[in-house]
Every structure is written in structure tokens, then in C-alpha cells.
Amino acid sequence: MKHIVKIMVLLVAISACWIGLLQTSIIPRSHTWLLPIYFVISLGCYGLLMVGVGLMNFPTCPQEALLRDCASGVECFMKQYDVSEKKAIEEIQKMVANGWKDINEDCMRPTNAPMLLLQHIVNLVRVTDVVYGDDDDAYTIPLSLKDYVTLLYVEQVPMCE
User: By C-alpha distance, which of 10, 106, 91 is closest to 58?
Assistant: First the structure.
């Protein structure tokens, strides 16, 4: 259940970006119905889902692993392909890496969509990677986000003039 909530939050955040960018008139209102179709194609549905879902397939904290309220992606992969846990984790990590490659390739191609819109969606996936990418869950255990917050707000990089 928690994995589904994480995926839904990511989709809601992407939708919020679309709404915010529509309000700033970056996209003509007559083309708004094309947005969901366009982004699934332009960013590569496989890439976006592999990164988002792949990162969320691991238990985010020891308590979640103990609850076992639903099978994780690793357990499903192990059962479907009859492999060990180590091999399943390696394969899911390969899927995540391939998803990042797909996203980067799709963003490097020239498109008719405003790059600002693409950047917002890619940045949401990047945040997902920062928060859920390591072995620990930075949302549940915020101490692991300390270095990122320090770099952003305490030790800011001076801007060139």
C-alpha cells in the first residue's frame, strides 16, 4: 500500500506542475488536453516509471520490512523469475539505471514542448531518487537529507555576476 501511495504522490506532483505552468501561460490552453499523452511519450513512460517505481520497490525502513503488508517489487521479481534476492535487487537497479538513460535521452532530443515543463517533471523524479534512492528512506529518516539541506541553504554556492 505504501508503494502505491508513493507512486500516486509522484503523479499528483506532476499534475500540480502542469496546473501551475498552465497558470503562468507557458502552454496555450487549447493544447492542455494533449499534455498527459505528450509527457508519457516524450519522457518515455518506461524511463519515468522504472525510475519512480524501481526506487520505491525496496522497503523504506526496517519497520516496513517487518510489517509485510504487501509484497515488495523485489519479492515479486524473485518469485516471477525464480532468482535470489541479491540478483533481483541487481536487476531492479539495472532497470532504474536504464530508466534514467531513457529520460536523459528523451530530454536531449529537440521537442516542441517547452523545456521548462520537461525540467519540472524530471526534477520531481530526481527528488524521488534523492529521497528513496539509497538504502535508507530519507523521508522517514530525515537525518540522511541533512547534507542536501546544508548544501542548499547553509553553504550556498555564490552566483557569478
Answer: 91
> How far is it, in rounded angstroms, from Cα 64 to Cα 62?
5
3-class secondary structure, 133: coil
Residue partners of 56: CB distance under 8 A and separation at least 6: 3, 6, 7, 73, 128, 132
Rg of the chain over Cα atoms, rounded to whole angstroms, equals 18
Q: Where are the domains of the chain?
A: 2-154
- 3-state DSSP call for residue 155? coil
Q: Which of 43, 52, 45 is nearest to 13 (CA)?
A: 52
Q: Which residue has the cell 540478483?
A: 87
pLDDT tens profile 82-137 = 999 889 888 877 887 887 887 777 778 766 666 776 777 777 777 777 776 665 56
Q: Is the dihedral of CA 68, 74, 80, 83 positive or negative?
A: negative
